[in-house]
Amino acid sequence: MKHFFRTLSSVLTAAALLCCGCADMGAGKAVQPGAQEGNGGHGDSAGPWRYTDTAMGTVVQMTVYTERQEEAETFSGQTMELLAGLEREEISWRLDTSEVCRANESAGSAQGFPLSVELSALLSDCLELWERSEGAFDVTLGAVTRLWNIDQWAAGEALEDFSPPSEELLARALEHCGSGRLRLAEEGAAGDGGLRLYMPEGMGLDLGAVGKGLAMEKALALLADRPDVTGAVISLGGSILTYGSKTEGAPWRVGIVDPFDTSDSIGILTLEGQWCISTSGDYERYVEADGVRYHHILDPETGAPAVSDVRGVTILMKDGLLCDGLSTACYILGPEKGMDLAGQYGAEALFVMADGEIVMSEGMEQCFTEQ
Ligand code: ADP
Ligand code: MG
């Protein structure tokens, strides 16, 4: 992997000259009008059909290419149901209807917890990423993320009385964390190939770093069952899925948010067909107290927001789950180790550094146009 460097001045100039109307989708931004914009509920021509809603604590935007509006509407309804179901039945650690919540309740039990096939595969991937990232990526930080109340930040609730947890509290919570302390055994539910999860008492899974990745995987599975949908772009906050093609065959154009001015993009990725694009950054979710900004990507060694000279990382690859996980891991690892990790998975990576420099892999450079 080669590294490409750009200077602060080129980034800032680019941001100032940004043409907002040219992207199909930008992470966390409103859908830009296209040449033949359709609108769910209003359009009567050939689409594309656009929908905006909320799920998983984030804004969901969809651009759907189908011949008929009813087909696009059913698809967007199915996608929203799928996202709500994913939260409710699988990954929420708050809702007692979810598998993760039940798994967390089983922590400390000698019998362990029989995981579904899907969560077995997900946790296996997360453990591998933990190993390869030398512990930077860790889905067992539940005890710590709860102390910070990160999901409350996401819900956008006022946190006037926020104060960071004390070092002592963090140290105590960290004793209950660490992927090296959980075990997956080949004896899951009813011989269906699921694994059994053993966690020590007090340990809690937090799948926040891969939730949107799993959502992209599920949306892809849904798309495979819907041949009437010939193209789609689905944006879930910092994660975007592209699929198929536009009616007129033009490539997808996905904006990468400028961490220095989140209403702008630093550039556009031009892509054909199916891709996943995930961005993690310290500007995505944070709180401020006494002039200090606390963001939501934690260093598993300290339990505190990772101290990094990276502002944001964008990963481009086919696989949704790994794409989302890698963006979090690479934020903590920084460009040198992060680029190596992304390369191990065949992923492309782009880092926006605190001094404005952009560092990207060769494959990323090929589809990136600076704004
Ligand atoms: P977002 O959820 O905004 O898309 P990320 O994908 O980067 O952002 O994931 C951040 C979330 O992952 C946090 O809100 C938290 O739930 C969880 N998390 C924080 N630090 C880590 C870490 N070091 N490893 C794994 N998960 C983490
Ligand atoms: Mg992530």
Descriptive notes:
This protein is 32% helix and 25% strand. With 371 residues, it is α+β, with helices and mostly antiparallel strands. The chain has two domains: 16-91 and 210-282 and 307-370, Roll (T-fold); 99-198, T-fold (Orthogonal Bundle), CATH 1.10.3980.10. Strand 13 and strand 14 form a beta hairpin. Helix 2 (69-91) packs across helix 8 (211-224) and helix 4 packs parallel to helix 9 (320-344). The radius of gyration is 20 Å and the shape is globular. The two termini are 23 Å apart. Residues 1-22 and 27-44 have low confidence and may be disordered. Magnesium ion is lined by residues 209, 278, 280, 324-325, 327-328. Adenosine-5'-diphosphate is lined by residues 136-139, 141, 145, 150, 206, 208-209, 212, 237-238, 280, 284-285, 296-298, 300, 324, 327-328, 332.
Please outline the helices and strands.
Layout: E1 4-5, H1 8-16, E2 25-26, E3 49-55, E4 58-65, H2 69-91, H3 99-105, E5 113-114, H4 117-132, H5 142-148, H6 150-154, H7 167-174, E6 183-185, E7 196-198, H8 211-224, E8 231-236, E9 239-244, E10 252-258, E11 261-271, E12 275-281, E13 286-289, E14 292-295, E15 310-317, H9 320-344, E16 348-353, E17 358-360, H10 362-367, E18 368-370
Parallel strand pairs: 2-10
Antiparallel strand pairs: 1-17, 3-4, 4-8, 5-7, 6-7, 8-9, 9-12, 10-11, 11-18, 12-15, 13-14, 15-16, 16-17
Helix pairs in contact: 2-8, 4-9, 8-9
The structure holds adenosine-5'-diphosphate and magnesium ion.
Adenosine-5'-diphosphate is lined by residues 136-139, 141, 145, 150, 206, 208-209, 212, 237-238, 280, 284-285, 296-298, 300, 324, 327-328, 332.
